[in-house]
Amino acid sequence: MIKGTPELIATRREEIINACRRLYQTMSFKEITLKEISEATSFSRPTIYNYFQTKEEIFLALYEREYDLWNKELETILIAHEGLSRTELAELLARSLEKREQLLKLLAMNNYDMEANSRPELLVSFKRAYGKSLENMDRILQKFCPELDAARRQSFRLVFFPFMFGIYPYTAVTEKQRTAMEHAGVDFHYLSIYELTLACLRRLLG
Questions:
Q1: Which domains occur in the chain, in start order?
Q2: Mutual orientation of helices 150-164 and 120-144 as an angle, nearest 10°?
Q3: What is the mean pLDDT of the segment spanning 7-35?
């Protein structure tokens, strides 16, 4: 049983998640350990076990928070505009993901292992945040593309959400990867998150 007020528990969870987020900016998932995370917080590794049982659970919490932040962006699009052309909508959605590079990086990971090594209640909480993004996207399409029926909106989501898994690997290219592509003679055109996402959305929205 975790001791402390709900506020203290939430604060400590956030400190752990924030430490993981900072480490993930310069280290890979495999390199990051609970020891590394504890050293980036104000308390010990045994204390972390009071909040998260595995490294994967911490990453899942970070993942959930990133979906929550994207959901706020999607809800802002819904509230702030009475009407949008398809071009304007594509641009706003692309900008919303441009701000969520951490989400896209997490999407590019092996989600199966992350989810398999997390407790069911934490996985359910994460799935709620993910499910909310699907719902928000459907609401956006209903509002700004009313001519799309339920089947066409579902088709849009079935293409766009899997597409999101590939955005980060295509846009965050290391110098080692660039050199390998050059030596392999592969003519590859590098795009930003915004450019790649916008191209997909324009095609999907017509």
A1: 1-52 (1.10.10.60), 56-205 (1.10.357.10)
A2: 130
A3: 94
